[in-house]
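User: Hey, quick favor. My workstation is busy. Could you predict this chain's structure for me?
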Amino acid sequence: MPAHGGFAPAPEDVEEVLAWFARYDALAVARDIEAMADQAMFPVNEVTDGQAETCDRERFVAQMTQELGGAGDIAMESARTPHFINENLVFVVTDATITAAGHSQQVRYGDLLVRCGGEWKFQTMVQGGWGES
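Assistant: No problem, here it is.
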């Protein structure tokens, strides 16, 4: 049976996760989709309203290419709140404003990160508004 809860992250644990997201956001702005995919633990789970699917690397790259491909300049402003399950699992809720091609949109989403081989990888992405209401 797993150890009982009670992991309290140190400030450096939180900073490590926030730094991971800063690097990931920079990859998204640079449209380095292959490097973005390198940050995942495939298959990735994608969850939205009334729907959950798995996504392999090929599908992820295709989705990100479509989403980021013709967007023009991209800017992202994000506020993130990590919720550590233990030292190897963290669910991060993000409130962000994404601006692309002169259009800004506020979004809220969540990501489950898993520590693998000493590195964080995202494994589950959760965002409302993409499926059934």
